[in-house]
Amino acid sequence: MTAKSIITNLVCVFILSPILAALIIWGAYVFIPESPAPPPAVDMTPAQAAVIRPAPHTPVSGRTVYMANCAKCHGASGDGKGTELLDRPARSFLEGGFSFGNTTEAVRRVVQHGIAGTPMPGFAGTLNAAQARAVVKYVLAMAPAAELDVEDALLEVRDRPLVLRGMLPARGPFEEVQPRGVLLGGTDGLTLAYDVDDVRFRVARQGAFARRTDWEGRGGTPIEPLGREIHWSGFGPAFVQDGEPVQARFRGTSIRDGRAELRFSLPQADVREWGVIRSLGILPGYVRTLHIEGNASPYTLQLPTLESPVQVGKGHDFHWWRAGQDLIGVRGATPTKDGAALPANGIVELFVIPGVDVDAARRAGIPEGAGT
Ligand code: HEC
After folding, report:
1. Is the predicted pLDDT of residue 217 greater than 60, yes or no?
2. Are 124 and 132 in contact (CB under 8 A)?
3. What would the pLDDT profile of 286-303 be if each residue is shown by its tens digit?
4. Among 229, 228, 215, 218, which Cα is nearest to 152's?
5. Which of 129, 140, 210, 271 is 20 to 30 Å from 239 at the Cα level?
6. How many C-beta atoms surround the C-beta of residue 344 within 10 A?
7. Does ligand 1 lie within 6 Å of residue 41's CB atom?
8. Residue 208: what pLDDT?
9. Ligand 1 in reach of 138 Cβ (< 6 A)
């Protein structure tokens, strides 16, 4: 080996390789969004937010994104007094009262998916990853510093889903404590609560996960779910056959494909179920997916509501019902007069959009062709 080739090798190893590595890392940082792609929102142009998509190299100013997309509701100074007239006030960030969690992750979720049942829209289809990061940082920086510590007893879902079993508190004066409950906490901030005994879905929450109050004791006190309730199922059984409740048996939970699943069986079918936050355009909601196998009986899935649902028609591939203030959509099952008939095998999706008035639903294309 000549001196020249040794020098060339040294140059390659010690100078060029680090530069190449640095370039690759920089490239990955700039071009790969840090979060997984949001669940596909059904197509609709968000009407409420200006779209600004700078080239990936331009540093994004959190303030610019804020002024263009958030200030009209949250106020230019973040005091919650925007120009937009809202039926419930937008949050003042200056006071730091982040009821959906004050971690970067928690605020990122709120910005990405919105808050179901409130005017807070989801920005998954409007802001790119860099813009979302910048505006989250900007919003958190408005809060008084003292507010920014996270409680230690908190169980937080971060990059992995969580399952928690134990006693669930009574939801209101008409409901009993559920001694055997299970909470599925998704990485998107959705928490689904079920009663293990009859495998009944009870409540969907969005935001923080849960606090264990029985950590040191013997399980004598309930788990405290922390998210905001976005939907409650009512008291009815989930599955009926000829008008009679069908007994479901809990089989367990599992973590699969990055989500927490519930497994249960009906007398003649096996079901796996999971949930995700999803929006229809800017209308925030969530979807429960049921994966059904070997269903030999004509079971009917009852819609999860206390109200008497009224069919409103098709839209975005779902059959929709109005149930009080909420919209409930079903895909993959045949609508019947009291619910949806399950297929023998396959996927059934249950899309719940809480707190939507008739006009907002029509603008979002429910029912089909009603949009303006
Ligand atoms: C159409 C009005 C509107 C727009 C636009 C809007 N928000 Fe909101 N936002 C709200 C309302 C209303 C709430 C309070 C919801 C509730 O009642 O909990 C809220 C709540 C929030 C929260 C939750 C605070 C908490 O308690 O944890 C965050 C964070 C937030 N908004 C950030 C943003 C950001 C960032 C933008 C811009 C990218 C934005 N919002 C745009 C109306 C809006």
Report:
1. no
2. no
3. 999 999 998 777 789 989
4. 215
5. 210
6. 13
7. no
8. 86
9. no
pLDDT > 70 in the chain, percent: 76
Name the token pair of 108.
């990122």
Q: Is 115 in the pocket of ligand 1 (CB under 6 A)?
A: yes
pLDDT at position 333 is 92
Query: What is the Å distance from ligand 1's center to 166 Cα?
Result: 32
At which residue do the structure tokens 């009679």 appear? 244
Mapped onto helix, strand or coil, the DSSP state of residue 282 is: coil
Average of per-residue pLDDT across 76-82: 87
Polymer length of the chain: 372
List the residue whose alpha carbon is closest to atom 30 of ligand 1.
111
The total of other beta-carbon atoms located within 10 Å of residue 30's CB is 10
For the CA of 119, the closest atom of ligand 1 is 12
Per-position b or e across 165-204, b if 16+ CB within 10 A of its CB: ebbbbebeeeeeebeebbbbbbbbbbbbbbbbebbbbbbb
In the prediction, which pLDDT does 96 show? Answer: 67
73, 102, 107: which to mutate for ligand 1, most atoms within 8 A of CB? Answer: 73
pLDDT at 69 over 90: yes
Using one digit for the tens of pLDDT, what is the confidence trace for 164-196?
A: 888 888 877 677 788 888 999 998 999 999 988
pLDDT of 307 reads 86
Residue 279 Cα to ligand 1 midpoint, Å, equals 15
Distance CA 329, CA 354 (A): 11
